[in-house]
Amino acid sequence: xxxxLPVALTQEDRTWGMLAHLGGFAxxxxxxxxxxxxxxxxxxxxxxxxxxxxxxxxxxxxxISYTIYAMVSGVLTxxxxxxxxxxxxxxxxxxxxxxxxxxxxxxxxxxxxxILRLVK
Length: 120
Description:
Layout: E1 2-4, H1 11-22, H2 33-45, H3 50-76, H4 81-105, E2 108-110
Antiparallel strand pairs: 1-2
Helix pairs in contact: 1-2, 1-3, 1-4, 2-3, 3-4
């Protein structure tokens, strides 16, 4: 889900917003990198732009949510349904991260579907 923000955004704002979403891929290289990347962007850049603040928080909430969903799926592998759920969580996470990055690069605020918004 995308929503257009009424303020003019700089290319730097859009780039940092995009990097916050793409930061989730860091988890495939560094343990907990998928959470650390958007967290660092949010902590370091939230004062610079409301757009970066919003998109980094959204990406951080998504990564925390996907981690919780993956952990639950991991437990459910004991009853075999977890394998299917884990596959679905990974596919949805990757697709949503890419969609979020594209939307942020175009200057649109992206909202991940079905996530917990823990960081306000």
